[in-house]
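lol so apparently i was supposed to do this last week
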Amino acid sequence: MRSWEELENACMNCYKCPLAQTRTNVVIGDGNRKSKIMFIGEGPGQQEDLQGKPFVGPAGQLLDKMLSSIGLDRSKVYIANIVKCRPPYNRDPEKTEQEACINFLRYQFLLIRPKILVCLGRIAAQAIISPDFRITKSRGIWYNRKNCDIIATYHPSALLRDESKMHPAHIDFQSIQQKYNELEQTNEQ
Ligand code: URA
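anyway here it is w/ uracil bound
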């Protein structure tokens, strides 16, 4: 797959896992395809499934606020998910479903070539950083793979459920802002 068109066609015509049977829309991604920073969630929820866009429900509204708190918005970042179809009742995507879908994310990564990846929550961190990643223990730590800086923070839905996670999430977002600004400065030189 070498173009967005090919990727979109492949996603729309994908029936590799059972999530295809219950989806309304395939949720491929949203934002700036030339961005240097990419945010990865878990999978579409109800609103995302209905609208065909990632993070447009309550968790998305919080994500927008957190992006705005560090001077970013959807015109500056790219947002995608580990699985592109909604798991029924918002359950965690199964390993087999993640495996069936992960190549689409790899192609997205190759098309965008971001310099910073932000994993939102455990599912994304385990799929991207390490299968035994523990979000409470290892959030906020920077990793580097293939010249890309990677960090995990709490999923916005977890922040909606547990207010005490908000402060550490803000610290992570400040660290993300710093990394992003450093990148912008080196690009300007
Ligand atoms: N939660 C996610 O992980 N992704 C979305 O797109 C929406 C909610």
